[in-house]
Design a protein that fits this description.
The chain is of the alpha/beta class. It has two domains: 84 residues, Rossmann fold; 110 residues, UDP N-Acetylglucosamine Acyltransferase, domain 1 (3 Solenoid). 13% of the residues lie in helices and 28% in strands. It contains three helices and 24 strands. The longest helix has 12 residues. The radius of gyration is 17 Å and the shape is globular. The structure holds coenzyme A. Coenzyme A binds next to strand 23. The site of coenzyme A has 13 residues, from strand 23.
Length: 214
């Protein structure tokens, strides 16, 4: 079923969520309101220019045939909340449409998974595959034939050269560069500003100029 006519409900209210509201609207989706447990607990009725619909239980009144969802929870290096919410609500039948900002360039043959968020100024070149619930953040670059798994975050201004593989849940920090042909393992972390010149094993973190492992 097409999600184009279904309004979006935003999950979470924070900095990433504000970016997502702007992205969703720029991509042509109306945003019905926001679900956020903390706002609901404080009985806040409005957030930004949106109605606070309640905590996640508010979705009991908004089934998957009426709304689709957009994840407003960001993913910092080690967080898993974003992944858990996506998995849980998808299992209940909700769609998370892929959102692409109109100022981003996504080559026509690129495969975007459900819930992928491509922010303003990002570039994704031909032959790429971006797994479900991944973020290609503001001004990030993903060059030709890169393969990103699920729940990957390429942070603002990071660059993946061609034919890079990034496995599930990995995080590429702001302004980092990953040279061509490398593999970043599952849940690995490339620190902000790193130039990665060799493969990174799963669940390892690299910071600094010399690819020092910690
Ligand atoms: C890699 C990272 C996750 C490590 O976080 P952390 O485990 O909390 O590390 P700390 O801040 O405790 O720093 C530990 C040490 O590593 C150094 N360090 C941390 N990140 C670094 C980086 N990106 N480059 C160089 N050195 C770094 C710190 O200076 C510190 O050095 P010290 O022990 O000599 O004082 C984090 O620093 C980082 O780069 N995050 C990415 C931020 C980002 O891209 N944000 C975008 C969000 S949209």
């Amino acid at each position: 079923m097409s999600t184009a006519v279904r309004p979006l409900v935003l999950l979470g209210a924070g900095g990433h969520a504000r970016v997502l509201v702007a992205l969703a609207r720029a991509a042509g989706y109306p945003v019905l309101g926001v679900c956020d447990p903390a706002l609901a607990a404080d009985a806040v009725s409005r957030w930004e220019d949106l109605d606070v619909l309640g905590d996640d239980a508010a979705l009991d009144r908004l089934p998957p045939d009426r709304v689709a969802l957009v994840l407003g929870i960001g993913q910092l290096a080690t967080g898993t909340l974003r992944e858990r919410l996506y998995t849980g609500w998808s299992a209940k039948g909700y769609d998370f449409p892929a959102l692409v900002h109109p100022t981003a360039w996504v080559a026509p043959d690129v495969a975007l998974g459900d819930g992928v968020q491509v922010m303003a100024g990002a570039v994704i070149q031909p032959g790429c595959e971006i797994g479900a619930n991944s973020i290609v953040n503001t001004r990030a670059g993903v060059d030709h034939d890169c393969h990103l798994g699920r729940n990957v975050h390429v942070a603002p201004g990071a660059n993946l050269c061609g034919t890079v593989t990034v496995e599930d849940g990995a995080f590429i920090g702001a302004g980092a560069t990953v040279i061509q042909g490398l593999r970043v393992g599952a849940r690995a972390i490339v620190g902000a500003g790193v130039t990665l010149v060799r493969d990174l094993a799963p669940a390892t973190t690299v910071v600094g100029a010399a690819n020092q492992l910690r």
